[in-house]
């Protein structure tokens, strides 16, 4: 399991450490302890990789449901992930209908850190590679008159 230094436990007592302006914050909202454990195991390597730029925290989805809603998440669909940039109050939610995986979180954080993400836009709504392939296929096989 991840050490608290890598993926912390978000609470009202330590809220200020997650609101620090110098780093992004990745909030993981989980409704059960089993979900928390599974996601911590899944994303620990990513949390270590981005430790310099992103603070990870797990929050109780039931207790902090209003906060999750304020960050653009839909209530009742957990586990959920959202990245918040306290320095400019930008919010980047992850598609709540998709499983949270290390590779997805890695890609999401790279997109955000490279400045290619749009605040409020849900990450994982579509797969750019699939869209690109569909565009190519439709133009290749579609003859204009």
Walk me through the topology.
Layout (H helix, E strand, L loop, with lengths): L6 E3 L5 H4 L5 E7 L2 H17 L4 E7 L4 H6 L9 E6 L4 E4 L8 H12 L14 H14 L4
Parallel strand pairs: 1-3, 2-3
Antiparallel strand pairs: 2-4, 4-5
Task: Jot down its keywords.
Thioredoxin-like_sf, globular, 145 residues, single chain, Glutaredoxin, five-stranded mixed beta sheet, disordered C terminus, 5 helices, alpha/beta
Written account of the structure:
The chain has about 140 residues and is α/β, with parallel strands linked by helices. It has one domain (about 5-140): Glutaredoxin (3-Layer(aba) Sandwich), CATH 3.40.30.10. About 35% of the residues lie in helices and about 20% in strands. It has helices spanning about 15-20, 35-50, 65-70, 100-115, 130-140; strands at about 5-10, 25-30, 55-60, 80-85, 90-95. It has a five-stranded mixed sheet with strand order 1-3-2-4-5, covered by helices on one side. α2 crosses α4 (about 100-115). The chain is globular and about 35 Å long. It holds the Pfam family Thioredoxin_6.
């Amino acid at each position: 399991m991840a050490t608290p230094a890598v993926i912390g436990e978000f609470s009202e007592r330590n809220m200020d450490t997650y609101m620090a302006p110098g780093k992004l914050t990745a909030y993981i909202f989980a409704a059960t302890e089993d979900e928390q454990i599974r996601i911590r195991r899944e994303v620990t390597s990513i949390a270590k990789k981005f430790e310099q730029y992103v603070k990870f925290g797990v929050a109780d989805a039931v207790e902090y449901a209003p906060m999750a809603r304020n960050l653009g998440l839909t209530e009742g669909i957990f586990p959920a992930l959202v990245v918040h940039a306290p320095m400019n109050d930008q919010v980047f939610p992850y598609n709540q209908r998709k499983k949270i995986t290390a590779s997805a979180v890695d890609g999401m954080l790279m997109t955000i850190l490279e400045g290619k993400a749009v605040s409020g836009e849900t990450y994982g709504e579509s797969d750019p590679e699939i869209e690109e392939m569909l565009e190519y296929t439709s133009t290749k096989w579609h003859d204009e008159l």
